[in-house]
Design brief:
It is a single chain. This protein is mainly alpha-helical and 141 residues long. Helix content is 60%, strand content 6%. It contains 9 helices and 2 strands.
Amino acid sequence: MTFQLTFQVELGRNLRIARALLNLTREDVAARMLAEVTVQAIGTWETGIRQIPIDRLLDYCRVVGQPVASVWPMEGGRVQVIHAPRLRSVKDLRLRPLAVWAEAYGNELIRLTPDAIEAAAVLCDVAPDWLQRRLLKLQRF
């Protein structure tokens, strides 16, 4: 997979997460965008089949209430995107340090790089692979 294609897939995944956090459908996003956009176009952006034009990306982010930086893929590995309120609501006491940390993020999306997950695992006194799996469960909608 080329860098460009990987980037598009990651960006699409992050857009889909941002939309799902608001319980919006693709139809909802299309209806709220300033320019006329089809539901099919949104689907191709969210799956990484097509690259989203920058003006549409800005508008999509406006609709879902997130800055572009929160959905923009980061270099150097897969980034986990977690909705701060979800992280704050975890009941597992091992994740309490992360839940407290997430309070500073309000209703935003938190992006965790592999290095950040390693550091968080040390903070929570858990194995990094366990933490990564647990965070993936928090991403599911």
